[in-house]
Amino acid sequence: MAGPNSLYGPIDPAPDAGYTDAPPRMGFFTDTSVCIGCKACEVACKEWNAVPDDGFNLLGMSYDNTGGLSANTWRHVAFIEQAAPSPAAMDVLREAESTVSTQFLGMPSSTLPGANGREDRDLRWLMMSNVCKHCTHAACLDVCPTGSLFRTEFGTVVVQEDICNGCGYCIPACPYGVIDRREDDGRAWKCTLCYDRIGEGMTPACAQACPTQSIQYGELDELRERAAGRVEVLHQRGVTEARLYGHDPDDGVGGDGAFFLLLDEPEVYGLPPDPVVTTRDLPSMWKHAGVAALSMVAAAAVAFLGRRP
Amino acid sequence: MAEAHPVGFQWVMEAKKRGATVIHVDPRFTRTSAVADEFVPLRVGSDIAFLGGVINYILSNELDFREYVVSYTNAATLVTEGFQDTEDLGGLFSGYHPETGTYDPVTWQYEGHEEFAQSHEDAHVHRETGAGIQHEAHGPPVSGSVERDETLQDPRCVYQVLKRHYARYTPEVVERVCGVPPEQFQKVCEAWTRNSGRERTTALVYSVGWTQHTVGVQYIRAGAIIQLLLGNMGRPGGGIMALRGHASIQGSTDIPTLFNLLPGYLPMPHFKQHETFDMWAEAIRHLGQKGFWAYARCYAVSLLKAYFGEHATEENDWGYGWLPRLTGDHGTYQQVFNMIDGKIKGYFLLGQNPAVGSAHGRAQRLGMANLDWLVVRDLYMIESATFWKDSPEIETGEIVTEDCRTEVFFLPAASHVEKEGTFTQTQRMLQWREKALDPPQDCRSELWFFYHLGRLVRERLAASTLERDEPVKRLAWSYPTSGQHNEPDAESVLKEINGYDVATGAPLSGFTQLQADGSTACGCWIYSGVFADGVNQAARRKPGQEQSWVAPEWGWVWPANRRILYNRASADPQGVPWSEKKAYVWWDPEKGEWTGHDVPDFEKTKDPSFRPAPGTIGVDGLAGDDAFIMQGDGKGWLYAPAGLIDGPMPTHYEPAESPLRNPLYSQQANPVRKVYDRPDNQLNPAPPERHSEVFPYVFTTSRLTEHHTAGGMSRQLAYLSELQPAMFVEVSPALAEERGLEHMGWAHVITGRAAIEARVLVTARLRPLRLDGRVIHQIWLPYHWGGSGLITGDSANDLFGITLDPNVLIQESKVGTCDIRAGRRPTGPALLDYVADYLRRARLDATHYAPLETPGAGESDGRT
Amino acid sequence: MGVRTWIEGWPVYRQLTGTDPLGRGQAARSARTDALEPRTKTADSVAKSVCPYCAVGCGQRVFVKDGKVTQIEGDPDSPISRGRLCPKGSASKSLVTSDRRQRTVLYRRPYGKDWEELDLDTAMEMIADRVVKARADTWEDKDDDGRPLNRTLGISSLGGATLDNEENYLIKKLFTAMGAIQIENQARI
C-alpha cells in the first residue's frame, strides 16, 4: 500500500501502513484558549498508563514542575507568564520609599500600578497541554530498526514495549523532541493516544478527564473542521492572535494527528516553528544508496563473470 | 474557581463560549484570571467596600429590578425610628455595648417589632454559640406582619436606609480601600447591572475563603444584597454559589458535627435560653412568623424520636432533659486553648489534620501535646498524629517526646470506595456512593467506628443506675450489620435521617409530614424525602444526557429535591415567567398549580393573587407573592433586622490585622469580632495602634489545583506531589526588589505567631497596590505543606492568630500582616528568639490586646 | 503452532506478502499489541461513586478486578461533571491503592518514643474505656443555680468534611447522648 507520499507530503497514514479497512484517522485537537492549566491530563495519563512520576523538583518555570514531555511525562502542561516586571510598579515603589510620610507625592496617576486596566490585559498566563503529535510522517517510526514503533489502524504512532530494545534511534529523529528513553529500563516511551482505550471506542484518558474540553479527541478530519471554526470565532471576538499549529497536511510532517490552537508563536510554547520529518530525504538517499548498491552488484558480477573466460 | 474547582469551572467556560462575560475579582492573578474577560485585583479584606460600591452604583442610578425588589424583598419595609447607622456613629450601629462588645439590636428592628428584639446579653450568647449558622436553612425569627411603603420613598424604608448607608461607597472610596481604579470598577458595575433583569441573570460565585474573615458573613450578605437588588435570586443562571472545598462540607453543617447545632440547623440547647423543651422549641421560631419554619416543633420532636425512639415520650418532653447544654463558646478554637490549659482529656480527629489545616498551627500542636489521649483516624499518617516526635515544636524544644504524655491511637480509615453512603455536594445535592470493595486490613469506616464505639460504651454503662447514663442507655442504637467486619448498614441510617412513621415504620415522603405528637421520627428534617417511597433517591443515576437540563433524576437535593431555592421568584408576582428565556417555574392558571422545570419552592396550589387575612401565621400567612418562604416575613432581606450580631447591613471594617487605618470610619475593625486575648495568641498591631510597620505587608493564602487542603490526600501521592513539589511564596517583582528576594531562592515570612520558610516565586501575577497614599504589597502562600508525606515544607497556617467572625465563629485566616526576609528562617530555639524579637519591636507583650472599639467610634466623625 | 503459522507470524513474511511492504503498520504488530484491551473492559465490577476531594461532587466509576481497584475515572453520565475529573480526582486510584497508605493500627503509649503495633479490637476496647473514664471524670450535672448541664467538657472531636452524612449523623447522635458537646468539623474552619 506504500505510495508516492509514504515518506513526505499529504497522505492518510493508516492505509499507507497496510490497513486495508482502516477506520477514520483519530487524533487530538488541543485548544489552548480554554486550557486552565489544571494538569488533570498529566495525572489521568499516568494513572491509566502507569507512567512513573518525574521526580519532585521545583523548577520555577511558573507552575510547570515536570519540565516537558519525557519518557515519564506523556502529557505536559506548559505555563507561560507574559509580563515583564512592571516598570511602573518599580517606580511607585522607589517613589514611596523616598518619602517618609504616608502621603504619596509621586507619579501622575496614569502610570501607577492598577491605575488603569491596561497592565492586567498586558499580563497573560498562557497554558498549553503538549503531547506527542502522532505525525503523518513519523520519523521515529521510520528509523525504528526493530519495528517497535508502528502505525496503528487509527493512524497513531505507538511504541510496542515488548519489541523495543532501547537502541534510541527514534529519539534524535523526532522533530519535536517528544520521544524519550526511560532511565531505569532504557526503553523508549511516549503517548500511545491510549491505543488500548480507543480500540474499544473509549476516549483517551487525558481527553476524558479534561475539565474544559481543551483536549478534544475524535476523527481528525472532524477535529480540523472544528478547529477552523473555533479560530474563526476567536478572530471575530478580537482574539486575532489565535492560530492553528500542526493542522496542515502540507507541512513538514504531513500534518499532525495531534494539533493545537495557540495564542502566540509556537516558539513561545517551546514548539518548533516549522518542524520537518527528519527522514524527508530518505527516498532520495535510498535511491542513491540503491544505485550504489546496484553498481557494486554489477561490479561484483563483472568481477565474478570476468573470471570465466 | 479554575484553581480549586476545575470541573465545576467547565460550566463557566461553557457560558463563556456562549458569550458570557467572566469577571474575576481576586488579590492575585490565578488560573481563573487567565481565562476571565476582566481581572480585577483588589486588596485582601476589602470586599465589602467593593461590593458596597456596586450597591451604591445600583441605588444611586436606580438600576435595581424594581418590580422584583418591591414584591420579593423587604425594600419597602419600615425600620424603627431609633435606628442609627454607621454614618451617624463613626462606624458603629446604634445599640453598641462596649462592656460586652456586642450590640443591643432593638433599634435595628422593623417598625413596631421592638419588643421582639433580643437583648445585648442575648446577642452575647448568640456570638459565643455561633448562633448565626442556624440560619443556613431558614431566616431568623421575625414577625410576618410589617409596615410597608411600596413607593420606597419613606426615609425609614429599607430601600432608603440602604441607599444612605452605601452613599459613601463611591468609586473613589473603592479605589482608596480596594486599590481598584474607578474606570475598571465602572466596567464591573455596568457589566453586572446590564446583564441582570427580565431577560438576563448574573451569577455570583465565591469560594469559601470569603467566610474566613472577621466580617465573613457580611461579605456574603453584601453579595446577597446585590443579587436581590438586581433580581438574580431564585432564577436560573443567577444566585449566589458557594464553592465549598470538601466533598461533604455542606452535609457537615446540614447533619452537623458542630458544637452549636443539631441536625437540620436546630440549635443545641443553651443552659439558660433553652432550659426547658418549650423554651427550646419556641426559641427556634417566632410566634408571629410566616412560612415553614413555624413548624419547627414538629422537626424538633421528630429528631428526639429518632434519637431516643420509644423512650422519647410526651411525658418526658421527648427526652429533651437528657440533652447536654451549652454555656458559651465551645468551638474548635476555644477547645484548643482549653487543651493548652489542660482542661480536655481526649480528642478525636476524624479525617482532619489541624496541625497543618487549622489557624495557629503551633497552638494546635501544643494543645494536642497536653491531652491524656488522642484518636486519629485517617487514610495516611498525618502531622496531627506525629506531633510528639517530629513537629516543629520538637525542634524548638517546646515539645519533648519523653515528657509528652499524650497517648495516641492511629486507626486507619476506609476510603470513599470502601464504604457506602452519601456526600452532600456544594449545591445541596446528596449523591449515594456504591461500595466497590471491602477496606483492607484494619481500615474501617467512621460508621463502623462510631457504631461499635457506641456499642462498647453502652455495654459498659448497661448496668449503671446513674441518671447521667440514661440517655446512653435509652439511645436508639440498633442498626443492622453485615459482612466480615460487621459493618453497619448505611442505608438504614439514611432511612432514619429521612424519617418514618413510628407506628408502621414506613418512610416519610417529605418534611411536611412531620408531626409534633411523637407519631413521626426524623433524623434531619431538611433531608426528609431522600428515602421517599422507600427508594434511595440519592442513588438515582439517570444519565444527564437522558434528562432535561435541570436533571432532576440525578441524586437528590434538599429540600424536596428542589434544585434552585426560592424559585417562586423566577416568575413575576402574577406567576408569569419574567421572560421566556428565563422561564423556570410558573403558575398554571388552568390547572391551578405551580409547575415548571424544577420542583416549585412554593405551596403547589397557592394562587399568586392569594392574600392572607392580617395576622395569619405559619404557611397560611404566606401571600401568593411571598417568594422567600423560609423567611419570617416571606421576603428576601436587603436589610437584616435580626439574626446578625455585627449589624443589619454589611459595613467595611479593616481585617483584625491591617497595615491601613480604616479609610471609611473611625471604627477600625469589626467591633463585635470574637477575640481570644491570650499571651499565646498575639495579634499584630493595626492602626490606630502604633508599630504596625513591624509587619508591613499583607499576606493571604489559598489552594493550588494540584493539592488538597492540609495535604493528607495529596502530598502522599506521587502524581500530585510532582506537580507542585515544594512550599513556595509568591511575591511581586517590586517586593522582591524591596526585600532582596531572588526567584527560586529562599525567603521566610514572619508574624507574631511564627516564622516559616518557602522558596520564592517572583511573578507579575502579584503586584503592589497603591491606595490611600500608600503602596501596599501583598504576598501569597499556599497552605498545603507540613512535615509528613512525599514532599514536605513549612505550614502557612502557622502564621495566623485566632480571631473569629462573630456570627459563625469562623477564623480570619485569609488575611494577616507579616514581614518577609530573604534566606531561610532560624532553626531550633533560635527560631523562638527570632519571633520574640518581632514581638518586642511591635511592643506586643503578654498584657497587650487590641481594644474592640476604636477611639472616635460611636461619634459622628464626618470621615469620608 | 505449525511451521506455516510460525512463518506467517514472522513480520518479514507479513511485510513481504501483505499490504505493508515498508513494515511500519499492519506488518509490525506484535502479539501483545494484537491482544491489547483496556483493563476497564475486564473488570469484575464497576461501582458508581463520587469524588472525595472538593464539593463539586463529580461522578466516578470505580473498576475492580480480583479484589483490587484497577481504575477510577469520571462518570460520563453525571450531569454535574460529564465524565471529567481534575488532577486530584484523576489521582483517586493512587489515593486508594498507594503503598504509603496506613493500613494497620498504630499506638503510641504515653511518653513513648515510637509507634507500636496494636490489635484493632484491643484498640477499640481501650478507646471505649478512655471515653467512659474521661466522661465520668469531667461530668457536669448542673450549674450553680441548679440548671441542668448534662455534659462533659473533657472530650473533643474534630471531623473532616469528607465524612458521609450517615457517619456524621451517628457521630453527633452518640456524642450528644454521651453529653460530649465539643464536637466540631471542618465546616467551622
UniProtKB/TrEMBL annotation, chain A:
GO molecular function, one term: metal ion binding
Keywords from the UniProt entry: 4Fe-4S, Iron, Iron-sulfur, Metal-binding, Repeat
Cofactor list: [4Fe-4S] cluster
Main location: other
InterPro entries in the cross-refs: 4Fe4S_Fe-S-bd, 4Fe4S_Fe_S_CS, FDH_Electron_Transfer_Unit, Formate_DH_Fe-S_su
Pfam families: Fer4_11 (PF13247)
Compartments where found: Cell envelope
Residues at which [4Fe-4S] cluster 3 binds: 132, 135, 140, 174
Cellular compartments per GO CC: cell envelope
Residues at which [4Fe-4S] cluster 4 binds: 144, 164, 167, 170
4Fe-4S ferredoxin-type domain: residues covered: 26-56, 123-154, 155-184
Taxonomy, superkingdom: Bacteria
Annotated residues for binding of [4Fe-4S] cluster 2: 45, 191, 194, 206
Record-listed [4Fe-4S] cluster 1 binding positions: 35, 38, 41, 210
UniProt cofactor note: Binds 4 [4Fe-4S] clusters per subunit.
GO BP annotations, alphabetical order: cellular respiration; formate oxidation
Protein name in UniProt: Formate dehydrogenase beta subunit
